Amino acid sequence: MRYLMTFSYDGSKYQGYQKQPNGKTIQEEIEKSLFKIAGNTAITIHASGRTDAGVHAINQKAHFDLDYKIEVDRLKHSLNSMISNDVYIKKIEIVENDFHARFDVISKEYIYKLNMGEYNPIEKDYVFQCCEKLDINEMMRGLKYLEGTHDFRSFTKVDEEKDFERTIIRTNLLIDSKNKNLITFIFVGTGFLRYQVRNMVGTLIEIGKGKKKSTDIIDILEAKDRRKAGITAPSSGLYLNNVDYSK
Amino acid sequence: MRYLMTFSYDGSKYQGYQKQPNGKTIQEEIEKSLFKIAGNTAITIHASGRTDAGVHAINQKAHFDLDYKIEVDRLKHSLNSMISNDVYIKKIEIVENDFHARFDVISKEYIYKLNMGEYNPIEKDYVFQCCEKLDINEMMRGLKYLEGTHDFRSFTKVDEEKDFERTIIRTNLLIDSKNKNLITFIFVGTGFLRYQVRNMVGTLIEIGKGKKKSTDIIDILEAKDRRKAGITAPSSGLYLNNVDYSK
Questions:
Q1: N or C: which end of chain A has fewer CB within 10 A?
Q2: Which of A95, A130, A155 is the last residue of a domain?
Q3: Model confidence band, residue B128 (pLDDT cutoffs 50, 70, 90)
Q4: H or E element: which one contains A196?
Q5: Partner residue opposite A121 with nearest CB, options B85, B118, B119
């Protein structure tokens, strides 16, 4: 029986989503509880993709298999009662046996929160404290140049990855209605390279500061050279907001 | 020279504001940095009052004395560069030598944030995750019975405190415009007893759940008995929002 779960997490105290030899990870946190529920049997969960250290998720998705059928609401309840309060299982549903939480992804949505105002210690792990006024219009123009299908080599760490082409379907930049200094970048794409969102945001911040122009995005994409883009924005502001499998 | 500083802090990893033999405190955090700035001289800061473990502040105030005059913006900048990122000094100003950050308080404002919706791990240390629909109108009626001058013995830990009379000047209950499950209680008063706000909120939550009626507040105040009121709401949702010294 294959199950798909939707979950949220506070990534601030984790070494990232994916299990690794050293440090706390979200995957391990969930698998530890599933191990007990499955009668001390190791259950591997397959997520839509990893998130890096300090990155949060509002709706991450992962599938896993159990030999038997279990009532999904009971399973959700059991898992939530055992798991760390940094993670919350929002929904579990039964899916087809050939469904795959990573391979079947149609699009993903990441959001990035940034504070242009005075440093706020209360939200430091959840909103990047940029604390500098940025040119919103120029950043919005920069965002538009990122949309579409491009080779995003300039926005990732070039290592084993072979195919750098990705499609950004939609972007947006929202200003909070109550706090005009709180802005949110939105990126919807077919998939993202490692550090791509944070590198795009870092570049947009430099555009917002006037260190780069929005049209520089065209040249940066063209260059296929990581050194041409801006810095990597901190993980604190980044959230995996949605994973879409439906047509 | 007497200085008054306004500061914010994330109280989630602290044993409270006030210095104590064991555990990290906000006061110690600030005094440690002032000690260095003042050339290894111990400087005591006098806050408007303490906040308990896990409680946050948006605008806490404290005064301290230095033998010499120092440019306040430079002092603010130096302090912020040395201090933990859980604390932020928003403003430092020079005040009269007889000003006292605690004794001169005219009113204080506390806010309490509560989530009636699905558990959210991302805000667990900053918004109480009640995760239950509450009767807003009945809680608002309950709030009104708390306003005015009363003996608040039913809402505090009865120990050394002698005078239990306090005045609540204004209360409110706001529903977030974007997230209808996020509510904020507001309490403005001349002063508050230990745990008073959290005990009032705990009682209002029981009213919101239908376990108590709003009119029960009248009896609870009358009883002067802690056992008549509700539970102590968790510290996570509580913020010292303002301290007022002006007429």
A1: C
A2: A95
A3: very high
A4: helix A196-208
A5: B85
Given B52, B104, B125, B216, which residue is catalytic?
A: B52
Q: What residues in B contact A10, CB-CB < 8 Å?
A: 121-122, 124
Reference B120, options A127, A213, A87, A40; nearest CA is: A87
- Residue after which a domain boundary falls, among B72, B95, B118: B95
Confidence of residue B174 (pLDDT cuts 50, 70, 90): very high
Considering only the beta carbons, identify the residue of A88, A120, A121 that sits closest to B121: A88
Report the DSSP pairing between strands B2-9 and A182-189. unpaired
Q: Which residues contact A246 (CB under 8 A, 6 or more apart)?
A: A106
A124 touches chain B (CB under 8 A): yes
Give the total number of structural domains in chain A. 2
Core vs surface per residue A90-122: b (16+ CB within 10 A) or e: bebeebeeeeebeebbebbbbbbbbbbeebbbb
Q: For residue range B135-160, what is the model confidence (pLDDT) as tens digits?
A: 999 999 999 999 999 999 999 987 76
- CATH number of residue A63's parent domain: 3.30.70.580
Choose, out of B9, B88, B174, the residue to mutate when testing the contact with A (most A CBs < 10 Å): B88
Residues A155 and A187 in one domain: yes
List all residues of chain B from 28 to 87 with a beta carbon under 8 Å from chain A.
Answer: 56, 58, 80, 85-87
In terms of residue numbers, what domain contains B178? 107-244
Query: DSSP code of B153?
Result: G
pLDDT the model gives residue A68: 87
Q: Quickly list DSSP for B62-105.
A: EEEE-SS---HHHHHHHHHHHS-TTEEEEEEEEE-TT--TTTT-
- By the 8 A CB rule, do B65 and B42 touch? no
Do residue B124 and residue A56 have CB atoms under 8 angstroms apart?
no
User: What residue ranges in A10-55 does DSSP mark as E strands?
Assistant: 46-47
| Domain assignment of residue B102, yes or no | no
Model confidence pLDDT, tens digit, residues A144-178: 999 999 999 999 987 766 899 999 999 999 999 99
This prediction has a pTM of 0.93
**ipTM > 0.90 (yes/no):** yes
User: Helix A216-223 crosses helix A136-146 at what angle (to 10 degrees)?
Assistant: 30
pLDDT in tens, B71-102: 999 999 999 999 999 999 999 999 999 999 99
| Percentage of residues of chain B with pLDDT beyond 90 | 91
| Residues in chain A within 8 Å Cβ distance of B177 | 177-178
B119 in the same domain as B234:
yes
If phi over 0 gives left and psi between -120 and 50 gives alpha, with beta otherwise, what is residue B131? left
Q: Please list the active-site residues of A.
A: 52
B25 & B125 share domain: no
